[in-house]
């Protein structure tokens, strides 16, 4: 990568990159309700259910209520399903200190950083709960933009938020289709995996 091709702005995914989850925590809850581990998440991520939530058409609470409704018969009725969801949402996950340091180092080097996420309209509350509100120059939340990753329109909006053309933006994400979508939209992109030291994107930004 030559100096003229170096990215000058970073777009970074939240869940799966900045935030990670220990699946065993909610698995224990699900097992107490007679469900296989991962059932709640799998249900929540069903596309027809998820899409309205991540494009701002329904709230997070409404989205999770549809999950409870779907699982009610399997856990013993609506009340039990509501109790399941109340327990399931308590665990917030954790922020990866290595990734957060990378974000801070990119910004310290003078490059804007945008958190780029498919999330619900309440996402800024999540950032605030982790004390991360001031860690980014912009927030590209699909629920606010009205278009989700990996659509070209999403990436165009995200790049505009950091006032940087796509060719000078790099996306760091953990999902292949997001990487492919970013590249198709003209960005450079790097696939993150848990435990990654981010040495490649660090070099790309000259860190």
From TrEMBL:
Lineage top rank: taxon: Bacteria
Pfam families named among the record's database cross-references: Hydrolase
InterPro entries in alphabetical order: HAD-like_sf (IPR036412), HAD-SF_hydro_IA (IPR006439), HAD_sf (IPR023214)
Family matches, as Gene3D superfamilies: HAD superfamily/HAD-like
Cited NCBIfam families: HAD-SF-IA-v3
Protein known as: HAD family phosphatase
Annotated organism of origin: Dactylosporangium darangshiense
């Amino acid at each position: 990568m030559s100096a003229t091709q170096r990215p000058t702005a970073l777009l970074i995914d939240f869940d799966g990159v900045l935030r990670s989850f220990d699946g065993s925590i909610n698995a224990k809850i699900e097992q107490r309700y007679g469900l296989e581990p991962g059932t709640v998440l799998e249900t929540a991520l069903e596309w027809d259910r998820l899409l309205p939530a991540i494009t701002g058409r329904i709230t997070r609470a409404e989205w999770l209520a549809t999950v409870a409704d779907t699982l009610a018969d399997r856990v013993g009725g609506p009340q039990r399903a509501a109790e399941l969801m109340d327990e399931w949402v308590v665990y917030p996950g954790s922020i990866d200190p290595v990734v957060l340091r990378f974000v801070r180092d990119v910004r310290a080097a003078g490059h804007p950083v945008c958190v780029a996420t498919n999330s619900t309209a309440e996402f800024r509350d999540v950032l605030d709960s982790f004390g991360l509100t001031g860690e980014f120059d912009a927030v590209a939340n699909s629920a606010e933009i009205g278009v989700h990753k990996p659509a070209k329109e999403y990436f165009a909006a995200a790049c505009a938020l950091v006032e940087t053309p796509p060719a000078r933006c790099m996306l760091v994400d953990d999902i292949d289709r997001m990487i492919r979508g970013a590249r198709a939209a003209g960005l450079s992109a790097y696939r993150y995996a848990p435990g990654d030291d981010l040495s490649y994107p660090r070099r790309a930004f000259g860190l």
